[in-house]
Structure formats: structure tokens, C-alpha cells
Amino acid sequence: MRFGVTASWFIFQLGCASALAAQSAPLPGRGLAQHDFLYCGEWQQRGQSPQTMYVVRGGKVTWSYSIPAKDEISDCSMLPNGDIVFARRSGASEVTPEKRIVWNYVAPPGTEVHTAYPMDNDHILVMQNGDPAKLLVIRKTFEDPAGEVEREIALETRVPSAPHGQFRHVRMTPEGTFLVAHMDLNRVVEYSPDGKPLWSVDAPSPWAAVRLRNGHTLISGNQNGYVREVDKNGKIVWELNKDDLPGIPLYTVQEVSRLANGNTLINNWPGSLPLEQWPATVQLIEVTPDKKVVWALQDWKTLGPPSCTQILDAAGAADSGDAQR
């Protein structure tokens, strides 16, 4: 096994060197210095090396935290106190800047967790894939490290016995409803706090969906990479498809968010490609409403694959504390 990891890493480094040599013109933006941001991604080195989260400030990695290679980091968010809440497939945790775990939820056998999103300082939204799949609202407590489940909603899935492909990101809307990307049912559904469907729209293999402050819904595509914004009637009002950005193809679009400056941030995950081709792909893309790329990050020597990115600086972070991610 050790030889396999070393060989894969050597091939990957050759890919990084080839990608840099093949790049004929600088990519838009200032690389790691474009924004301060929190960054994480699932399946680092195809699960052959530790899975790592990074905080980038001033163009440099200022903090990182790793978990075992067998896990996946699919979701991560920084709290106002600097703690980071993250999903790790086998559960969810909150880690301090000093790298101390202060909250820890362990997923039951046969289930997976790919959403762990702070609703406020005391409550965390967890999506537990499984049979049945459950949306959980967990209140952190001093009495129990795992916290107290205050709300549990069973959700429909296409194949209950295949948890991995059921859900990635689930989010709460400003109205207190739940916006769920049903990856295996090809639709996005908004649920009331007690689990009643309120609104839905068809979307091929949606990885994530977020309700924007204009009332529209921003959706990302796990297959045939796409980003689309739909209105309350389900009409597409803005869209990017795989080959719409010259020289920057979309692969699997994981988290997608709307920044305070009106631009859209895309996490462009290359897991469908052979490992040696990853370094030739762009990890993060910031695009204006008129589809001009202002930032294209390609730095595989520093960062791993992109699943989830939280912009931390004033230039891009969501204002009024109401994140659009």
C-alpha cells in the first residue's frame, strides 16, 4: 500500500509540473492572494492521503487541519470565534484554531454525513445519508459531546441502501425552511420546518442549492458540470455549462455560492478525471454576472481538490451575516 501511495504522489507531482509548463498565459486574478478563504475538499489524492482543510490569508496557508485518508471532508464553515464546523463522512465535528475538537457527532454504521452547517452559534444542520436518510438539527450541549437532536426529518431517496449518492449539501433558508439537493432524485426540494414539501425544481444530479437574497435558488451540478440560478417558478434566469468559459471547463461542480460583490464562486472538482490530470484543472472560479472570469485558482502544490470554500474577506464574504452558500 505504501508503494501505491508514493507512486500516485509521484505521478501527481509530474502532473503539477506539466500543468505549469503547459499554461501559456496567467490565469485571471491574484492566485491565493485574491481572497482570504477557508477551503476543503473530498477525496484528496483519491483517498490515498490525509484529507485536509486550509485557511488562506494574505496569499498563504496560515492554518490547516487533517483527518484520516479514509474519510472525506465535504462541508466546512468558520464560526465567528474561529472554530470550524465540518462534515467528514463518518460524522461531523467542530475544531478550534488550536485544533481541539469541541463537538463531535459520530454517524451510525451504514450512514454517511456530507453536510454540517452552523445555523447559529448553538445549532448545526446535519444531513445523514442512509436508510432512512435523516435531516438533523443538533443543539450543542455541555452535557453530551454529540449534542442533542432537536429535529429529525426523514427524506425520500431513490436507493435507500446506497447512502453515498443520496445527498451532499443541505442548507437552511432565511425563512427557516430547508433547501435540499436530492442528488439521486434529480431535483431540489424546499421543506417546511416539519418536513412538508413546499417547492421543488428538477435539476440533474444537484450537489448543492442555496437560496439567494433575491429569492432565486442557485444550484450546482454533480454531473455534466453546471451552475444555474432559477426563479420561484423554476425558470432558469442565469446559467453556466461545462464549456461556457473559454479554456476553463467545468467538471463536477460542488459547492457554488453568491458573493457579496455579486459574483459567483464555483468549486470545480475534478474527481471524474484520472489523478494525473487533476493539476491541469482550475479549482476555484469567480465569475461576474456577465460571465467574465475574474479569478481562476490553479494551485495543486498548495491545496487539494475543491468541494467547499468560504470567503473570509470583506471583498467577497456575504454581508449582514446572511451567507449565500
Q: Widest sheet: strand order?
A: 3-2-1-24
Query: What is the CATH third-level topology name?
Result: Neuraminidase
Taking all residues together, what is the mean pLDDT?
92
Largest sheet: 4 strands, antiparallel
Number of strands: 24
Rg of Cα set: 19 Å
Q: Please give the alpha-carbon distance between the first and last residues.
A: 38 Å
Oligomer classification: single chain
Q: Which class best fits the helix and strand makeup? A: mainly beta
Write the CATH homologous superfamily: TolB, C-terminal domain
CATH architecture title:
6 Propeller
Q: Work out the strand percent.
A: 35-45%
N-to-C series of helices and strands? HEEEEEEEEEEEEEEEEEEEEEEEE
Helix content: under 10%
Number of helical elements: 1
Total separate domains: 1
Q: How would you describe the shape?
A: globular
Tell me the name of the CATH class.
Mainly Beta
Name the poorly predicted regions: 1-5
Characterise the protein shown here:
The protein is mainly beta and 325 residues long. The chain has one domain: 6 Propeller (Neuraminidase). The chain is built from one helix and 24 strands. The strands form six sheets. Strands 3-2-1-24 form a four-stranded antiparallel sheet, with no helix packed on it. It has a four-stranded antiparallel sheet with strand order 4-5-6-7, with no helix packed on it. It is globular and about 55 Å long.
